[in-house]
């Protein structure tokens, strides 16, 4: 009986760790929370990006590792950016350079997220 219980637990752990191919594991809520500290800077372009903003970009890079995750995160960021009427596209595009963090897509209203790989 003990062997069966251990086998079931191992199978459950394996299933939990498996992700279906092509399915994103990052949610829009996560993306929005990660980039939220950047909002004041990318809307106004005044001052400089904050440490929290730059750390968020780094967290986004680490969270979105598969193509599906990158495309999902990109679409979430794009949808969030569309909600900012005063988004400064030039400032938001330069944010990774300012923070010295690489992400695979800009925070932009005008990006085709299906092109992200």
Structure description:
The chain has 117 residues and is mostly helical. It has one domain (1-115): Plant lipid-transfer and hydrophobic proteins (Hydrophobic Seed Protein, Orthogonal Bundle). It contains six helices and no strands. Helix 2 runs antiparallel to helix 4 (51-63). The longest helix is centred in the first third of the chain and has 16 residues, at 2-17. The protein is globular, with a radius of gyration of 18 Å. This is Non-specific lipid-transfer protein. Residues 28-113 form the Bifunctional inhibitor/plant lipid transfer protein/seed storage helical domain. Pfam families: Tryp_alpha_amyl. One of its GO terms (biological process) is lipid transport. Plant non-specific lipid-transfer proteins transfer phospholipids as well as galactolipids across membranes. May play a role in wax or cutin deposition in the cell walls of expanding epidermal cells and certain secretory tissues.
Topology readout:
Blueprint: H1 2-17, H2 28-35, H3 39-44, H4 51-63, H5 67-82, H6 89-99
Function: Plant non-specific lipid-transfer proteins transfer phospholipids as well as galactolipids across membranes. May play a role in wax or cutin deposition in the cell walls of expanding epidermal cells and certain secretory tissues.
Pfam family, one: Tryp_alpha_amyl
Domain Bifunctional inhibitor/plant lipid transfer protein/seed storage helical: 28-113
Helix-strand category: mainly alpha
Q: In percent, how much strand structure appears in the residues? A: under 5%
CATH superfamily: Plant lipid-transfer and hydrophobic proteins
Helix content: 55-70%
The dominant shape is globular
- The CATH architecture term is Orthogonal Bundle
Rg, Cα atoms, Å: 18 Å
Q: What pattern of helices and strands is seen along the backbone?
A: HHHHHH
């Amino acid at each position: 009986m003990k062997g069966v219980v251990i086998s079931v637990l191992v199978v459950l752990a394996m299933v939990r760790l498996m992700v279906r191919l092509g399915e994103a594991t990052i949610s829009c809520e996560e993306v929005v929370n990660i980039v939220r500290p950047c909002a004041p800077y990318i809307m106004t372009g005044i001052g400089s990006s904050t440490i929290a903003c730059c750390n968020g970009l780094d967290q986004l890079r680490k969270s979105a590792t598969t193509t599906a995750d990158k495309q999902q995160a990109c679409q979430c960021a794009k949808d969030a950016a569309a909600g900012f009427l005063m988004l400064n596209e030039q400032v938001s595009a330069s944010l990774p350079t300012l923070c010295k963090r690489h992400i695979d897509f800009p925070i932009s209203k005008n990006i085709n997220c299906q092109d992200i790989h």
